[in-house]
Design a protein that fits this description.
With 129 residues, the chain is α/β, with parallel strands linked by helices. Helix content is 43%, strand content 21%. α4 links the parallel β4 (83-88) and β5 (106-109). α2 packs parallel to α3 and α3 (68-77) packs parallel to α4 (93-101).
Length: 129
């Protein structure tokens, strides 16, 4: 885990849409997270390979440069062990299946809401204590 019980948990929001990144970042900040944003999967992989550590990553499915499934697969190959939550507006079962198989812990529909992430956040907080 990235954080000790005295520190805020850290979340990475990966999405090419500015409004979605800002909405998700604000939602997580309200829930007590320090947040960082990445515009695409490559930025997320680069951040993690440079030593950045997160408690949770919210990864969009469809982005330019590097899509969510490829980035998730690379992060898992790099032994990134934090929760990776897929976030998508897509409804294509095959695309979502590929995303899950890349190493997601869970996949949620955009936009995130407190109701959608509350059980995930509580699970993370319980592992911190």
């Amino acid at each position: 885990m990235a954080s000790t019980s005295n520190e805020k948990m850290k979340a990475l929001i990966v999405d090419d849409e500015t409004l979605i990144r800002k909405m998700h970042s604000k939602l997580l900040q309200i829930a007590g997270f320090d947040t960082q944003e990445a515009l695409n999967g490559k930025e997320a992989v680069d951040l993690c390979s440079s030593g950045a550590v997160f408690d949770i990553i919210f990864m969009d499915l469809v982005m330019p440069v590097m899509k969510g499934p490829q980035a998730t697969r690379l992060l898992r190959e790099m032994k990134v062990a934090c929760k990776i939550i897929g976030v998508t507006g897509q409804t294509e079962a095959d695309e979502i299946k590929e995303f899950r198989e890349a190493g997601l812990d869970e996949c949620l529909e955009k936009p995130l809401t407190h109701a959608k992430i509350s059980s995930i956040i509580e699970g993370l907080k319980n592992t911190q204590t």
